[in-house]
Model the fold of this input.
Amino acid sequence: MTTDVEKFIRFCESDFGKKVLEKEVEYVYRELKDYKDILDIGCGIGQFEQKLQDLNITGLDSSAEMLKEARKRSNKTFVRGDGENLDFNDSSFDAVFYVATLEFLADYQKAIQEACRVTKPNGKLLVMMLNPESEYFHEHMQRDDSYFRRIKHTDLREIKNYISGFYEITKEEYFLGIREQQIFDPAEKRFASLYVMVGKKK
Done:
């Protein structure tokens, strides 16, 4: 097992990681509970698939090691693949979501084109990205071993503008306040660890 997978499992199983995941899971469920076929791009170890057993989610990840762990956690469908070249037919899914994935992909524009292609007409897109303006983000970036350092895109406005060419943005907000491992509803953008966009396919 690679250290990436081990580190991610350790985070997800820590008390802090469990609280973060619980909030993210609640958000995803609230937004996607009415959708039938759902694609999770960058599913990692399959924590959303494990927690959201009632939803028909297909998990996709480029890492064989991550998917090996994901398959231990739930009996959902997991596919090894590239978010920029999805091996699915057009209009295969009612909803597509990314949680801390899109900003790490080399070509986020190609990824959005592909997400749109596999989304059914009027289908939903949910994007949850790390907020580069947050204190939590800046703390992580000061650590040499933080995976946040692999982030490739931090211009949220640019990403939103690009996505709005394919999806009508129906909601955007800052979410999941984090300070000193405490979780709260952020009143200020600088405390919100995530930026969220919800869109409807045009």
Q: What stands out?
A: The chain has one domain: 3-201. The chain has a mean pLDDT of 96. DSSP finds seven helices and eight strands in the chain. The radius of gyration is 16 Å.
